[in-house]
Design brief:
Helix content: 10-25%
Shape: flat
Number of helices: 1
Radius of gyration: 14 Å
């Protein structure tokens, strides 16, 4: 299978009691939501995506 270049859009909302992180891709007329995470799972994933590792 040929690999393709793909970009993802990530939106994180921590302004409410329950944190939410949404992942999607841009399509011709908007955004295609791929997955959504809430609570502790959203917080952990956000940290993985935004905190730079020392050994990279």
């Amino acid at each position: 299978m040929k690999k393709k270049l793909e970009s993802f859009l990530v939106c994180a909302d921590f302004s409410n009691d329950i944190p939410v992180l949404v992942v999607g891709t841009k399509v011709k007329n908007g955004i295609n939501i791929i997955n959504a995470f809430k609570g502790e799972e959203a917080e952990k994933l956000y940290q993985k995506l935004t905190v730079k590792k020392e050994d990279v």
